[in-house]
Specification:
This protein is of the alpha+beta class and 203 residues long. Helix content is 19%, strand content 21%. Strands 1, 2, 3, 4, 5, 8 and 9 form a seven-stranded mixed β-sheet that branches. The longest helix has 19 residues, at 142-160.
């Protein structure tokens, strides 16, 4: 039997618990069964490491900001489909997302962060893009940051579908993983101003 999930008013399950850790897919001991959707799997990413010896020596190699969780209202650490984040407007996102209007990075004083995307089998294809943290003079919201991350993954997948991947299970393209299967779980500060998305795939 198939189940319909209403993204605007999802049903809250009593089993809505998780053993989540930030960027869980990149950590060997991270739980893979923390999602309520049965076929949802975390993407096993390599955590960003800065190039250049001096950055390795002087940079902060631990996260300095708390992860930015992306969830439907009433859920915890389950994520939201990137297609929803990419296609829906601000009003719809504010209705469906937990803390959508929170100015999640306003306290940092940062003007921008850098999104780093890596994917199993495509590690040689570097993708780093700035995300501006102010829009019309105001700090961006959780929903706005999530939408920008989804836009970047959309463009990344557009580009990578024409490249050959080295990890068969995670191959990008019509016969493998497509953008509509991606789930954004959180955004994580992995080094100085570098952030990575904790991503899952609905197989």
């Amino acid at each position: 039997m198939s189940h319909y999930y209403n993204p605007i008013h999802p049903t809250v399950g009593s089993q809505n618990k998780s053993q989540y850790s930030s960027l869980g897919g990149a950590m060997p001991n991270a739980p893979q069964s923390s999602f309520l959707v049965p076929n949802r799997r975390r993407v096993p990413q390599a955590i960003f490491q800065p190039s250049g010896k001096w950055r390795n020596q002087t940079g902060r190699l631990v996260q300095t900001q708390a992860p930015i969780a992306i969830d439907f209202k009433g859920y915890s650490r389950q994520g939201i489909k990137m297609m929803e984040l990419y296609a829906r407007g601000a009003l719809a996102l504010s209705q469906m997302m937990q803390g959508a209007d929170d100015r999640v990075l306003a306290h940092t004083g940062l003007k921008r962060i850098t999104l780093y995307i890596t994917w199993p089998g495509y590690e040689s294809q570097e993708w780093m893009r700035p995300i501006e943290l102010y829009s019309s003079g105001s700090p961006v919201t959780r929903a706005e940051i999530a939408a920008v991350v989804a836009q970047n993954f959309y463009r990344y997948f557009e580009k990578m579908q024409y490249c050959s991947g080295l990890a068969k299970d995670w191959s990008i393209g019509p016969m493998g993983v497509t953008f509509d299967k991606l789930v954004l779980v959180s955004l994580n500060n992995v080094f100085e101003d570098a952030w990575q998305a904790d991503v899952a795939v609905d197989f």
